[in-house]
Design goal:
two-stranded antiparallel sheet; 2 strands
Length: 136
């Protein structure tokens, strides 16, 4: 093999390596989310927010009615919207909850809260805004 062939083989292997790294970084699960959190980009964003900032969803009411059905589904729902995403504390034996992946209202409210926090709103203001949204 001459030097030209080695050069092109090196380019080929470097390109393949780059493609593999790109695919791996695109589909990696750095937040250790459950598979159902990847059903769409908004859902993924909501689950990441719940994992990174559970305190911001703790105490914000869930308005979908899932807490009224807790007896039938065995769902603990004492902390508010965070319970739609996470059962307990993920760092201390808690686990993911699938409910938010099946409830557009829950993950959209979490994303609304995220947006309002970035706008500088307090938890009290966010609770009031969501309460007004569902007043009717």
């Amino acid at each position: 093999m001459n030097k030209s062939n080695y050069f092109w083989m090196l380019i080929l292997f470097a390109s393949l390596g780059g493609i593999i790294l790109l695919i791996n970084s695109t589909y990696s699960n750095t937040y250790e989310l459950p598979n159902y959190a990847f059903l769409n980009s908004q859902l993924k964003e909501a689950y990441i927010f719940a994992k990174m900032f559970p305190d911001k969803l703790d105490g914000i009411p869930c308005y979908c009615g899932c807490m009224q059905n807790a007896g039938g589904h065995g769902r603990l729902h004492s902390r508010g919207l965070i319970d739609c995403f996470i059962e307990g504390d993920l760092n201390n034996g808690g686990k993911w909850d699938k409910h938010a992946s099946e409830c557009v209202m829950c993950y959209e409210d979490a994303l609304t809260a995220k947006k309002l926090y970035t706008e500088g709103k307090s938890k009290i203001e966010i609770k009031s805004i969501l309460k007004e949204k569902y007043k009717k």
